[in-house]
Amino acid sequence: MRVTLGAFIQSSLLLLVRADQWRLKDSTNCELNKKQTDLNSFLWTIKRDPPSYFYGTIHVPYTRVWDFIPENSKQAFQESNIVYFELDLTDPYTISALTSCQLLPQGENLQDVLPRDIYRRLKRHLEYVKLMMPSWMTPDQRGKGLYADYLFNAIAGNWERKRPVWVMLMVNSLTEADIKTRGVPVLDLYLAQEAERMRKRTGAVEKVEEQCHPLNGLNFSQVIFALNQTLLQQESLRAGSLQVPYTTEDLIRHYNCGDLNSIIFNHDTSQVPNFNNVTLPPSEQVTAQEIDSYFRQELIYKRNERMGKRVKALLEEHPDKSFFFAFGAGHFLGNNTVIDVLRRQGYEVEHTPAGQPINRRSSSSRPESEDHYDESPLLEPFLHELLHKEGDQGRPLEDDLLPHMLLPPDSLELLEKAERKMFKKKRRNKQKKQRHRHFNDLWVRIEESLHISSSSCRQRGKRGGGGACFSCSSQQDFPFSPEERHMA
Question: Are residues 406 and 445 in the same domain?
């Protein structure tokens, strides 16, 4: 299940655009050998002591690219003290915030806001996807215990409550090629999990809202145009009258071949379609250009500026630490990149080819051992924060952890991990509250519960329930949560 976007925030939405826009160099000529000098490199070194690093990721299963990532990139990750991502994809609050961001206002459904014809076409397309999904899944996915119905609900569940722009992104991710990649962590998420396993300090340079609000900022007519174009594309693909000129496989080949072309990776980074299609009539081309320009400004250029400034602040706040910043590759390619922001601030940043040894830190700035793990907080304003005020909730937090979030691409492992984290945290908080109860309060509660449970047992006994009253009493006082019943 992966909401996001990454996070907001984790599918590379593969868009249909002008053929000449997408015709990059023929990556099939790239020999995907694994000699270190011939591998790709999306690593840049921020020159200081200790050095820090930028690393460009893509939103595809890590297993498709890991063997082609140079050893010096992996070494830079290994030797860094702190790893930063766009969003913290291992944080359940990130998942919760991304879900909330996608939903329509309370009481509204998609049927209420969409034109009738578009709603009918959308529903018909989702029915087609659900029907086809069992045949789209791979034997490996079935071997891992994934079921088509569960996978469909993890991606498209509760779709009638989503805002139209998020439904548009969801439809783009419900293709056979993308479905075959589900169930394996994308590269960003895998690095986050590895950093956690290695007990590295981690953080995020963006808040969910900063990725989410630009998508919700399109006006209604633009959103309807985008959703209609997306449905037209998918309907043409189903009818066989259109072929996708650019696929996930193309993206992976370009990445593994080290093609630093900004066009292809900018679309993976922004994760929104480019509707600027030459087949559109002139009036619609204007709308398409407006949407494309809006997203380029909001999801690439403005984010690059903001992320670069926060990277600078982190480097200045922690001059003795080595950082590894893993962001979408498009943030480092083209114009007005994160690297450009750092260079304007006086930092020397250089590309680090595969096979080139990374600069060793001085002995005085070696990373702390695991026995001296530093728990001190980093720059709080830049860490993801989601305030859950009890008075504003009206429902438990785990209600937000729904199995239909869109992180590019969907990773079911993330949802399960987030739910486990949330459950453990809730149980710890519950135990903590119980420890702080006053003795008299506890005595009254026990007395009340015994009275309730004993009367309950008597009623069951009258109905012929039998059984020990102790077990009934225990169940009344300490009810199992659904998660506990599942684990029992």
Answer: no
In a domain, 305, yes or no: yes
Residue 235: what residue type?
Answer: E
- Number of domains within the chain: 2
pTM, to two decimals: 0.71
* CA gap 480, 426 in Å, rounded: 13
Residue 445's domain spans which residues? 441-487
Look at residue 4 and tell me if it is in a domain. Answer: no
The answer to whether 272 and 218 are in contact (CB under 8 A) is no
- Give the pLDDT confidence score for residue 266 in this predicted structure: 53
Query: What is the distance between the alpha carbons of residues 230 and 126, in angstroms, rounded to a whole number?
Result: 13
How far is the C-alpha of 133 from the C-alpha of 145, rounded, in Å? 15
Residue 422 pLDDT > 70? no
Do 337 and 472 belong to one domain? no
Task: Please tell me whether residues 51 and 177 are part of one structural domain.
Answer: yes
Residue 183 is predicted with a pLDDT of 87
Residue 7 covered by a domain: no
Q: Answer whether residue 31 is part of any domain.
A: yes
148 and 68 together in one domain:
yes
Q: Which residues of 311-331 are buried (b: 16+ CB within 10 A; e: fewer)?
A: bbebbeebeebbbbbbbbbbb
Question: What digits encode the pLDDT tens for the residues 82-141?
Answer: 999 999 877 888 888 988 999 999 999 999 999 999 999 999 999 999 999 999 999 988
Phi, psi for residue 105 in degrees, rounded to 5: -55, 150
Contacts of 419-427 with C-beta under 8 Å, sequence gap 24+, read 419/92, 419/483, 421/90, 421/92, 422/92, 422/397, 422/398, 423/398, 423/481, 423/483, 425/92, 426/397, 426/398
